[in-house]
Design brief:
This protein is mainly alpha-helical. It has one domain (about 20-155). Helix content is about 65%, strand content about 0%. The chain has helices at about 20-35, 45-50, 60-75, 80-105, 110-125, 140-155. Helix 1 (about 20-35) packs parallel to helix 3, helix 1 (about 20-35) packs across helix 4 (about 80-105) and helix 3 (about 60-75) runs antiparallel to helix 4. The longest helix has 28 residues, at about 80-105.
Length: about 160
């Protein structure tokens, strides 16, 4: 049975409140960088992460913890995973001030939507004919078919 990884963000005691646009922007920057950093890797943990969803108030740190737990549950070597997660979190902090409105507008509540955003970004960067080949992540179109197929199977 596959575990479900979903977060409902709860503010920590003693931490100054952060606006929803800042939360969304940091999370978006984290997920975007994480996708790029893990693109060339293939692991069963990716299959679980691809199907994850989260609330709009989920922070980058909470999502990072959930991603980390998926890799732990899968038995992955955590050295490269932690390095990639920490790099993605660092990116989300550094780039936030420059791109807060852009990242906030691009915020998603599922990994599938984040992969769609990644594809759109690649078209902007590389053009429609010269995009990088997919590696460690499945195509969002394929994931939507799987997700929608599971939903139909559960209803029967």
């Amino acid at each position: 049975m596959q575990q479900q990884y979903v977060s409902d963000s709860v503010p920590a005691v003693g931490v100054s409140p952060v606006s929803l646009p800042e939360i969304r922007a940091r999370r978006t920057a984290f997920v975007a960088r994480f996708i790029v950093l893990r693109e060339s890797k293939r692991t069963r943990a990716h299959r679980v992460i691809e199907m994850m969803e989260w609330s709009d108030s989920t922070t980058a740190e909470e999502l990072a913890a959930q991603f980390r737990q998926v890799f732990i549950d899968n038995g992955d070597n955590m050295t490269p995973v932690n390095r990639d997660i920490n790099r993605a979190l660092g990116h989300s902090s550094r780039s936030l001030n420059h791109f807060i409105s852009e990242y906030s507008e691009r915020a998603t509540t599922s990994f599938i939507d984040a992969l769609w955003d990644y594809e759109r970004s690649n078209v902007l960067l590389f053009g429609s004919d010269d995009q990088p080949k997919p590696g460690g992540w499945r195509l969002p179109k394929e994931l939507m078919k799987i997700r929608d197929g599971e939903g139909k199977a559960k209803k029967k």
